[in-house]
Amino acid sequence: MEMDSSNQDKSSGSFSCITAIPGKFKAKVVEFTEKTKKIGQDDPRRIAHSAKVGLALTLVSFFYYFRPLYDGFGQAGMWAILTVVVVFEYTVGATLSKCLNRGFATLLAGALGIGAEYLATLCGEKGEPVLLGILVFLLATTSTFMRFFPSVKRRYDYGVLIFILTFSLVAVSGYRVNQIIQLAHQRLSTILIGAATCIVISIFICPVWAGQDLHNLASANIEKLATFLQGFGDEFFSFLGDECSVVASKDVKSFLQGYKTVLNAKATEESLANFAWWEPCHGRFKFHHPWKQYLKIGVLVRECACYIEALSGYINSKPQVPSEFSIKIHQLCVKISLESGKALKDLAAAIKNMVHPCATDTHIKNSIAAANELKSILESSSSLAKPDLQEIMPALVVASILIDIIKCIEKISESIHELSGKAHFKNNANSTITPEKQQQKQLLHRGIVKPINDANCDRVAIEIHGTCEDNSSKK
Amino acid sequence: MEMDSSNQDKSSGSFSCITAIPGKFKAKVVEFTEKTKKIGQDDPRRIAHSAKVGLALTLVSFFYYFRPLYDGFGQAGMWAILTVVVVFEYTVGATLSKCLNRGFATLLAGALGIGAEYLATLCGEKGEPVLLGILVFLLATTSTFMRFFPSVKRRYDYGVLIFILTFSLVAVSGYRVNQIIQLAHQRLSTILIGAATCIVISIFICPVWAGQDLHNLASANIEKLATFLQGFGDEFFSFLGDECSVVASKDVKSFLQGYKTVLNAKATEESLANFAWWEPCHGRFKFHHPWKQYLKIGVLVRECACYIEALSGYINSKPQVPSEFSIKIHQLCVKISLESGKALKDLAAAIKNMVHPCATDTHIKNSIAAANELKSILESSSSLAKPDLQEIMPALVVASILIDIIKCIEKISESIHELSGKAHFKNNANSTITPEKQQQKQLLHRGIVKPINDANCDRVAIEIHGTCEDNSSKK
C-alpha cells in the first residue's frame, strides 16, 4: 500500500491509463444503454417488432422439436426457419410483399426448373449438364438484367432473386435427386407455413402499417413547414421587440431544423408507398387508397421546403433603424408568413383527420390579399419618399420568396383536395349532406359518436372507437 | 371474303377489337424492346453485371455436375448456389460487404449455435427444447432490435440477418442431426467457395466500383449546378435580345432539369459511400480514401441546389421597358451567375481529375467583387433617380439569392479543398514542388507521362496509362 503511494508520482502515467480503461468501458456501456433506450423510446413499435420476430422463429422451430411434424417434413423444416428470418420485415406491407414474391417466384421457378430438368434428360447423359448449364446461365443473366427495370425493381426485386435461386436449385439439384417432386412439395409447404406464420403475426400482433406511416409522414412534413412559417413570421418581425417573439426565439433552433428533414424524405416516402401498395384495407384506409397521390404531395412539399431553405437565411435580417416604409413591408411579410403557416397547418390537420380541408382557402386568400397589398405598396413607392434599397432589400427578397411559397401552397392544397376526393375524406358540416354524412348522422343517433364543434371550422368531427384523432384538441 | 366485307359495317366494332389486340401487343413489345435498349445503353455495365451473375452461377453449379466435387460436399453444394444468388451485387463494395458479413456472421453464429446446443443437452431430454426455444427467442429478439441502430443498419444489417438465420438453424437442427460439426464444415466451405467465386468475378471482370461511382456522382452533381448557373446567366439577360442567349434558350429545358436530380441524390450517395468503405484500393483511390468527405460535399451541394430551385422561378422575369438602373443590376447578376458557374465548373473538374482546384478562388473573388459592386450601387441608389421597385424587384431577389449561392460555393470549395488535402490530390504547377511532384517529374523524364498545358490553369495535367482523364480536352 505504502509502496503504491510512494510510486504514485512516477507511475501516474500508466496508472491513469489502467484506470482509464474501465472508465472508458463504463462510459461506452452508458452511452450504449442510452442509445438503446432512445431507439426504443423514439418508436416503441421497434421493441414489439423484435419480439414478434423472436416469436415467429420460436414457433417455426417446433418443426424440429416435435416428432410428428419432423417426420412429415424432415430437413425441409429448415426452409420454414429460413423463410421467417428473410421475410419478416418491419411493416406489414414489406412482409406481405416479400411473402407473396417468394411464394409466386418459388412456384414459377420450381415448375420451370422441373421442365428444364425434363428437357435435359432427353439430351442424354453427356448433353444434360451442358444444356442445364446453358439454361441456368441464360435465365440468370436475363433475370438479373430485369432487376434493372425500375418497375420490376420497385415491386418484384425480391421475387426475381428468389426466381433465380429456386430455378438454379431445382434444375441443378434435380440432376442428382430423383424424388424431385416430393422434395418440391416438402419445401413449398414449409415455405408456405413459414410465410403464413410471418403474415399472421405481422398483421395481428401490434401491426405496423406502411400506409399509416406514409399518411402520418405526409401530415407531419406539412406540419413542419407550417411551424417554420409561423415561427419565421414571429422571428422576422422581432426587431420591434414585442414579447411574444422573444418567447418564440427560444425555440428557433427546433423549428429551424424541422423542415430540413422534409428535404430528405423522398426515399422513405417512396419505399413506404411501395409497401403500402401490398397492404389490405386497414383502419381508415380502403383497399384502393390512392398511395401514389402522397408521392405527388411529397414532391410539392419538398419544393416548398426548398423555398423555405432559401428563406431561412433571412431569419435574422433586421433593419438597424427601420423606416416607416420598411416596417410596413415587414408587417405584410409577417402576415403572409403567418397566414401561409395557418393554411399549411389546416392542410396537415385535414390529412391527419382525413377530413376535407375547410379553412385552407380562407388562409390562402388572406395571404394573397397581403401579397397584393405589398405589390401595390411597391408600385406606389415611386410616389413616396425615396426608399433605401440596401435597407429594404432583405424584406423584398423575403416577400418575393413568400409569394413563391403561396403559389406552392396553392398547388399543395390542390393536390390534397385531389387526395381528399380520391380517398373519400369526410366533408365538413357546411357542405351538402352526402350519403356518408347521412350515415354518420345515423351513427350519431345511435350514440356511438360524439360531436365536437370546432369554432374555427364549424365542422363536426367524428370520433369512432378512438381510431380517429381530432385536431381541435391540439389547438 | 364477300361475307366479311358485307358484314364489315356491322361487325366493325368487334373486328377492330380483334385487330387491336395484336396491334396493342406489338406496341407493348416495341415499347419493351426500346425500354430494354435504353436501360442497357444508359449504363452498359448492367449487361456485363447480368452476364457475370450468370457465369458465377454456372461455375458453382459444377458442384452438382461433377462427381468428385459432389462426393466431397453432397447436398451442401446447394449453399454455394444460394450464396452466389444472394450475395452477388452490382458494385464490388456491395458484394464484398455481403460476402464478409455472411462469412463472419456464419462463423460467429455457428460457434454460438454449437455452444447453445451443448448447453441444452446438459438440461436433459425434456429441458433441451425448452432451453433452445428460449435461447432462439432471446437471440432473435435482441439481434432484430440491433438492426434498428443506425450504425449497425448501415454496415452490418445483412450480417445480423445471417447471424439470426445461422444460429437458429444450427441450434435447432442440432437437436436431430448428430454430425453437426461435419455439417457446419461442409456448409462453411461451400459458402466460402460461393463467396470467393463472387468476389473474384466481381473484382476481375468489368468491376463496378462504388467508390468510383460516388466520385463521379459528386463531380457530375456540381457540374449540373454549374451548367444551370451559366445557362441562367445567359437566360436572365436575354431581354436585351443578344444572339447567344437565343441559342442558349433552346437548351433551357435540359439545364433546368439537371439540378433537380441533385436534390434527390442523398440516398444514392449514402449507399455508395457505405459500399465504397468496403472496397480495397483501386484505380486512383487509396485504401483510406476519405469517402465520408463526399457526403459532406453532397450536403452543401444539395443546399446550393435548393437556392437554385428558388432561383429557377425567376428565369423568365424580364422587365418590360428596362431602365438604365435595371440593366445595370441585371448585368451584375449575370456576371455573378457566370462567375459562380465557372467556379463550380472548376471544382467539378478538380474532383474529376483529382487535382487541387486552382481557378476556383479567382472566380469566387470575381463574383464577390460583382456582388460588392451591386451592393454599392444599391447603397448609392438613394442619390440617383427614384427606382421603380416593382420593376427591379425580381432582379433584386435574384441578386440576393445569388449572393447566398456565392456563400454556399465558398463552403463547397472549402470542403473540396479538405478532400483534396485528405485524398492527396495532385497540386498544380504554380505551387511549391512536393515530393509527389518530384516523382511526377521523374516519370516525365522517363517518357511515360505527357504534359498538357492548360491555358486557364497553368497546370501540368498527368496522364498515366490512360487511367486519368484530362479536363482540358473537354473544353
Account of the protein in words:
Chains A, B: Belongs to the aromatic acid exporter (TC 2.A.85) family. Chains A, B: Keywords: Ion channel, Ion transport, Membrane, Transmembrane, Transmembrane helix, Transport. Chains A, B: InterPro entries: ALMT. Chains A, B: This is Aluminum-activated malate transporter 8. Chains A, B: It is found in: Membrane. Two copies of one chain form a homodimer. By secondary structure, chain A is mainly α. The first copy, chain A, is 74% helix and 1% strand. A two-stranded antiparallel sheet of chain A has the order 1-2. In chain A, helix 7 packs antiparallel against helix 8 (124-146), helix 7 packs across helix 9 and helix 15 packs antiparallel against helix 18 (389-422). Mean pLDDT of chain A is 78; it is low at 1-15, 242-248 and 430-475. Chains A and B meet through helix 2, helix 3, helix 6, helix 8 and helix 9 of A and helix 2, helix 3, helix 6, helix 8 and helix 9 of B.
Strand order of the main beta sheet of chain A, please? 1-2
Question: What about the largest sheet of chain A?
Answer: 2 strands, antiparallel
Low-confidence stretches of chain A: 1-15, 242-248, 430-475
User: Quick one: overall form of chain A?
Assistant: elongated
How many H/I helical runs of chain A?
A: 19
Could you tell me how far the N terminus lies from the C terminus of chain A, measured between alpha carbons in angstroms?
Answer: 68 Å
Number of strands of chain A: 2
* Radius of gyration of chain A from CA coordinates: 31 Å
Helix percent band of chain A: over 70%
The amount of beta strand of chain A, in percent, is under 5%
Oligomer: homodimer
Global mean pLDDT of chain A = 78
Find the structural class of chain A using helix and strand composition. Answer: mainly alpha
SSE pattern of chain A: HHHHHHHHHHHHHHHHHHHEE
